[in-house]
Amino acid sequence: MIEEYPLSKKLLALSHVWENSLAGNFVISAKGAPEAVMDLCHLTEDVKKDLLVNVNIFANNGLRVLGVAKALFNKKTLPDSQHDFNFEFVGFIGLEDPVRESVPQAVQECYDAGIRVVMITGDYPSTAMNIARQIGLQNSSEAITGAEIESLSENELKERLKKVNVFARVVPEQKLLLVNAFKAIGEIVAMTGDGVNDAPALKSAHIGVAMGERGTDVARESSAIVLIKDDFNSIVSAVKMGRRIYDNLRKAMAYIISVHIPIAGASLIPVLFNWPIILYPLHVVFMELLIDPACSIVFEQEKEEPDIMNRAPRRKSEPMFGKNVVALSALQGLFALFFVIAVYKVALFFGQTINEARTLSFITLIVTNLGLILSNRCWKESILKTLKNKNKALGWVAAGALSFLVLAVYLPFLRQLLNFGLMHLIDIIIAFASGILSIICFEIIKLFFKKSLS
Asked: Domain count of the chain?
């Protein structure tokens, strides 16, 4: 092969020129869109019409159709255009590219999650619509071709984009046009691609998604995400993972606010009202040693909520930490503070020493802290249901907190260091009962915010 005439926006066909040294001439092979190849062969309209019947039969059965032509050239200098060759029409090739079994389900998951799926392809319109029907694409009975896209005004294209989901006979330059048009009507656009010519569209999209297996380096470098496995289901899994991470970040932030309210309150209130000190610096340090792993490990490992792929996408303007999350966190924290202070004051009222009252309130604080972790694991389900969902990190954090608490109360050195008093069984029961009551309150609060936190 000595020359290639590449595919172009004006002519959807490419030709290869081969040197035949024995005959002293050139052999040219052409392949491409059926209508483009028939045009290269300069066929009459009646012949084209008859041949297109076969193309439609192939395309309606979901086959990708290529036209094939050949030519001989005897001059020494090759022409600039493919049209300068005297092509002879050879026929059509129908290629079957079966839809993967996982794709229809993945497309349906997108629809359940409020995500619109659009097909942009260089295939024949009938082929594209047939494949669209196979994968369950909505409004698969209508398609816009690249030529139509070019002929529409900006406003006309925006109106068509609101309904049409299949775009056929599209060249790479028109992909960029479509991406920008979708953005102009307010859509958040994720664009997939693998070729060098896809790079502008991938770069322009809010989220460029490149194929990692068969994609070019240019496509990968232009994208925000590169798929290790070139499968549409991978994109759906990525959306699911992203939603889980977003949820868990919000839960961790809500927990941070709520757990620090009782700590701050128990440190400041005694100072303001001239009471004996409840929390010393060592107590706060111990609490932080419990809080940090809960935020960074426990919530990170939390599984997604059951309805995570049945929610509409959040609005672009919606903050991650909205007023409803702040209100939930504040109320949980205030209830936790109430029980910690109540236990402390009641213990003093019944004649227990300051160290014993401090110990009781600290145990209550630990139990409410664990309760806040459990309650914020899922805002849609109760603690009893979420306990069935395994989270190894939670078990280690809870075991570590309770183990240190036992040592702090019953090991003389630590008890003296932390200014604690020796606890009896009834004291432990009272403290744990208060902590459990606070957890019940957390769950009641959660019910009021259930719908607004979806």
From this structure: 3
Q: How far apart are CA 82 and CA 5, in angstroms?
A: 7
Q: What is the pLDDT of residues 134-186, one digit of tens each?
A: 999 999 889 999 889 988 888 899 999 988 999 998 887 889 999 999 999 99
86 with 108, same domain? no
Query: In terms of pTM, does the model score above 0.90?
Result: no
pLDDT of residue 454: 56
d(CA 166, CA 121): 8
How far is residue 293 from each of residues 134, 252, 395, 398, measured CA to CA in Å? 47, 11, 12, 10
Task: Give pLDDT, residue 408.
Answer: 86
User: What residues make up the domain containing 321?
Assistant: 240-449
- Token digits of residue 257: 């606010």
What is the spatial order of strands in the sheet that 225-227 belongs to? 190-193, 207-211, 225-227
According to DSSP H, which parts of 113-198 are helical? 125-134, 146-151, 154-161, 172-184
Q: Please measure the distance between the N-terminal and C-terminal CA atoms of the chain and give it in whole angstroms.
A: 61
For residue 389, the model assigns a pLDDT of 82
Show which of 199, 234, 269 is a domain's final residue: 234
Structure tokens at 250: 């919000």
Say yes or no: 244 and 340 in one domain.
yes
Domain CATH for 40 = 3.40.1110.10
The two structure tokens encoding residue 282: 């060592």
Q: Starting from the edge strand earliest in sequence, which strands make up the sheet with 88-95, in order? A: 3-5, 13-20, 25-32, 64-73, 88-95
pLDDT along the chain (454 residues), means of 10: 84 89 84 91 90 88 90 86 90 89 92 94 87 91 90 89 91 88 93 89 93 87 90 91 91 89 92 90 86 82 87 83 85 91 90 90 90 85 81 86 87 89 86 86 80 62
Question: 454 lies in a domain?
Answer: no
